[in-house]
Amino acid sequence: MRVLVTGGAGYIGTHLVVDLLSDGHDVAILDNFSTGHVEGLERAQRLAGRSVRLFSGDIANPTLLKRALQRADVVFHLAGSKQVGESMQHPELYFQNNVSGMIALLSAMQQSGVTRIVYSSSAAVYGPQAQMPLTEDAMLSPESPYGLTKAQGEQYLDWMARRHGWSAISLRYFNPVGAHSSGHIGEPFEQAASLVPRALKVLTQESEPLTVFGTDYDTPDGTCLRDYIHISDLSRAHLTAMTALDRSGHRIYNVGTGRAHSVREVLAACQRVTGQQVPHVLGDRRAGDVPVAIADPARFRTETGFMPWLGLDKMIASAWKWWQDNPSGYTSDKPSQTIDAREPWPSTRCAGAEHW
Ligand SMILES: NC(=O)c1ccc[n+]([C@@H]2O[C@H](COP(=O)([O-])OP(=O)(O)OC[C@H]3O[C@@H](n4cnc5c(N)ncnc54)[C@H](O)[C@@H]3O)[C@@H](O)[C@H]2O)c1
User: Fold this and answer.
1) H helices of the chain, where?
2) What is each CA distance from 37 to 14, 60, 127, 162, 327, in whole angstroms?
3) Is 94 one of the annotated active-site residues of the chain?
4) Domain-located, residue 171
5) Closest to 288 (Cα-Cα) out of 89, 12, 139
6) Is residue 60 part of a domain?
């Protein structure tokens, strides 16, 4: 397949790029490098031993979009802003990037006759629910502007499927954790906002002890429960979704494991994996945190056969390798060579086709 990955230089995108290239697909990337890293993309290409076509720029640019979509069969739409806290501070930025950006993409796809898409949605579309685990039919009541933008994106895809016969799949990711097994690509350190990277940061860099937000929730050990998924399983979920784009309509799937871990369990797993206790302090509840968020992954499994393979210790072990092997994270932010987006694809030029 010829695929376009928007946001392919980001945390999830780089892992997906390795898998797509390794599976023999022709891959184009459209990314403005606002949070993505050139070095991550270069490493992804070296890991796969094959190259992508890079369209460096914004999804709001219709000319660039048109070029990137030429001859594409499928789009993976990952580009966007993802920080819940930032969206509470600056909702307008999220409406601009996630909503306007997506509208620009959908318009360009329709004009180019590209009607298959896998969309990065999020568990943030759900509100605090009484009923756990969360099925895809649970009521949507996003608690943040970020969650709202993701829910709106899903609704646009509903209409594109209904009115134009598109084939679309929205994947509602739960909590992606971990890194590529090689240790060469992982979650950029500056994005270390979620529990596991925060814990590993405390262990590898001189920083304040981790704060556990809330120990008086109505959960077995008083701390919040979350459903974590290994980044490699999440990447594989995209390949599964692509093969399921065989009929028109919009389908929505939770991508989680259906197993929840408390904050204390995650810290214990970090200690098991690293051999070190994560220095931490017990703090008050944090505004906006729901006590429990667990996916019901049954629909995705039943309809596509997808099953996550890797458990919490594997997630943490891979992230730990990434943190240890790359003490400075991604360092270079300049392409090592220019990739000309006007060339027809598949490209034969890339940052390096040799393996490590
Ligand atoms: N990581 C998570 O915890 C998580 C959870 C649920 C959903 N998601 C969604 O998955 C997607 C990918 O997340 P990620 O963790 O890889 O984030 P990321 O920030 O690492 O990657 C996003 C990529 O999109 C690019 N980008 C952003 N705005 C762009 C624009 N206007 N034009 C072109 N490129 C643009 C960035 O440069 C970056 O490379 C996002 O849409 C995010 O909302 C992520």
Assistant:
1) 11-22, 38-48, 62-69, 84-89, 91-94, 101-112, 145-164, 195-204, 231-243, 263-274, 298-304, 312-325
2) 9, 19, 32, 36, 16
3) no
4) yes
5) 89
6) yes
Q: Which of 147, 95, 156, 155 is nearest to 125 (CA)?
A: 147
Specify the pLDDT at position 190. Answer: 84
Domain count for the chain, please give it. 1
Please state, in angstroms and rounded to a whole number, the distance separating the CA atoms of residues 276 and 115.
49
Kindly report the number of other CB atoms within 10 A of residue 4's CB atom. Answer: 30
pLDDT, residue 228, reads: 98
Verify whether ligand 1 is closer than 6 Å to residue 147 (CB atom). Answer: no
From the list 94, 119, 126, 146, the catalytic residue is: 146
Low-confidence ranges of the chain (pLDDT < 70): 332-356
Separation between Cα atoms, residue 230 and residue 194, nearest integer Å: 14
Radius of gyration of the CA atoms of the chain, in A: 20
Quote the domain boundaries for residue 195: 2-325
95 alpha carbon – ligand 1 mean position (Å): 14
pLDDT tens-digit readout, 257-301: 999 999 999 999 999 999 999 999 999 998 778 899 999 999 999
DSSP 12-49: HHHHHHHHHHHTT-EEEEEE--SS--HHHHHHHHHHHT
- The residue whose CA has the least distance to atom 23 of ligand 1 is 7
Per the domain annotation, does 317 fall within a domain? Answer: yes
Q: Which helix (H) or strand (E) holds 210?
A: strand 210-213
Q: Are strands 74-77 and 261-262 parallel, antiparallel or unpaired?
A: unpaired
For a ligand 1 pocket test, name from 31, 169, 229 the mutation site with the most ligand atoms within 8 angstroms of its C-beta: 31
**252: nearest Cα among 109, 354, 336, 136:** 136
In the numeric block, which tokens belong to residue 7? 């946001």
pLDDT of residue 343: 43
Residue 170, domain CATH:
3.40.50.720
Ligand 1 pocket test: pick from 120, 174, 196 the residue with the most ligand atoms within 8 Å of its Cβ: 120
Tell me, yes or no, whether 338 lies in a domain: no
- Give distance in angstroms: CA of 78 to centre of ligand 1: 5
